[in-house]
């Protein structure tokens, strides 16, 4: 027999590009895992809001291209970026590793739990050859954890009674769109699937090297590989990337979208529609005009742009008039009629135009905007935002004339609507009264939220993402606007004004790389039950994914697939575990920005243990804290709920101490387990900080932070929970300090990194006796710095 190593199988490549992408009730019911989405749940009266993590502009610069034009990476955005990271001297804790947003409403999803299936007996002969014994594909003995998945512990307790302690819990944070360097191996072909449960082959699968059959780690059934995995010896199985790596990307090029016109980068062919509030005072308008001028100057010349302004009416600007700014005006009191939209779409006006042909007109339009003239407070002004978004969606749907060629085109990637908002939607569809003291306000707010969610879903069906960027001092009524952004796959952000931070985020929003048509599947060993999922999506309908005979997977439909998203999974054991390992497989399918079909498969194996002390030593405290915080914040939908959740956090800490702590000698007091020594401090920050506390001034701000947190990545979530305190030293270096008030007595500059904001405490001889001055100074800087963080 030839013992030489076989060459890599055809259809494989070793290139490893980074990804282009890349929120629930405490009760845990058997066979009914709960999915909590940022969207209003259609299957449950309660809701949970999603985050959207900040819009991502960071991309791995060294992403390599595979398969011709197929790439998972994205080109760097054309906008100003934050300064490089500071130099740290002797940090006290390691940098944060792999972390989601606001309550919208949990969506309970019923799935039948996978029953234990008997393992098929392998035949003695295949194609006349004697069958060889099952072989581990890579001889892996130690458990493998992926950078895309962070578990609350590296081990799983075997006894159900010990494992299912709800105060501590067991779970994972999964970031399917996370970018790492180097990226996972790429295979340009369809993957094999278990015909029984739908799982994928992986490095833990056992293979019959004589016949190429492989055993599924989830259901233990044997599956054929159509002879592909036949090998002379088990070491040769390592030539198949899926059998030697915990993460693998299956890539299929081509495009399945009807009427698609391919371009080098689909983001360049997808239009950007600006929807601008025209009810602004002069000071805010001047800042907005400066940001808009800089924004269009930063865009690629071949991108198509549209401009709509709204107040009591909707003005759609026409680019067919050369250098002159002209607009068609529609009433904003109702949704635009079909006849009006037909006139716009099939008329002679050009409402989406390549920037190279319309840049002077765009500047003219921005310069022609005038401040609000009536003597009304900001909150009382009529704004028909929803009607304006409806018009923008209809125009993007087309057909829309391409100015340079005069042909009908459909955008290749996700189109974007960027709403520049200075106040609440108080007129027309989806509107609410200006005053929350209105006797019918609760009902009207609920109706408006449902209408906005429906509008966002309509945008999502048409591959349109709606980002809402708010600024100014007028409350915008976040609960009403949030469903529009969330259900379309976009985000809602608040800014102090329309200045530099707003402008930078506007640029980043337009160039944010996002995958579409995402489907996230979760499969676990039969011993494990997924009880709750918090993340950016909703329960996938049955026809949205392929079904298998005994498929017990948990499927989530994602509105967009991006790097800074993550899912929070809560799990339990169904009974006492008898096996030495349990397996978890996470798969996400999506279209990247180049319209390639990506299937990313992540497989993790964890050992099981009987010893509670071994389990406690394997716990990752930061991950546990983030998981607890996400489960807690899901129910903090109002200020009153937040107060109740603080009490819940206190009770949780007490319960952990009573179950895992050691009793002090000659005392009834319990010592908190030393393996979880930092957990109480992080939960204290959760209880006291802006997520559950009252540090941030307005409920709009707290609501946005909660929405952001529930879908945010692990790193951002941890910083929002437990700020990182740094002291500036001579020479431009920083030293990390505990996040205690006493650090502010220092005579050096102290920086508090809160993830979404940067706070700076500066003390000098002239202001040493006036600490309030330092606080105000740091507060102003924090808003400036927050614009430098990623969207």
Automatic annotation (TrEMBL):
GO-annotated biological processes: COPII-coated vesicle cargo loading; intracellular protein transport
- What is the name listed in the Swiss-Prot or TrEMBL entry for this protein? Protein transport protein SEC23
Q: What is the lineage of its organism?
A: Eukaryota, Viridiplantae, Streptophyta, Embryophyta, Tracheophyta
Q: Please note every region of biased composition (Pro residues).
A: 1-11
List the Gene Ontology MF annotations in alphabetical order.
Answer: GTPase activator activity; zinc ion binding
Q: Give every Zinc finger Sec23/Sec24-type domain span.
A: 193-229
Name all Sec23/Sec24 beta-sandwich domain ranges.
Answer: 516-608
Q: Which organism is it from?
A: Platanthera zijinensis
Q: Which Gene3D superfamilies match?
A: Sec23/Sec24 helical domain (1.20.120.730), von Willebrand factor, type A domain (3.40.50.410), Zn-finger domain of Sec23/24 (2.30.30.380)
Indicate the principal place this protein occupies in or around the cell: membrane
Q: Where is the composition biased (Low complexity)?
A: 13-24, 67-81, 112-123
- Answer whether the UniProt record assigns the keyword Nucleotidyltransferase to this protein: no
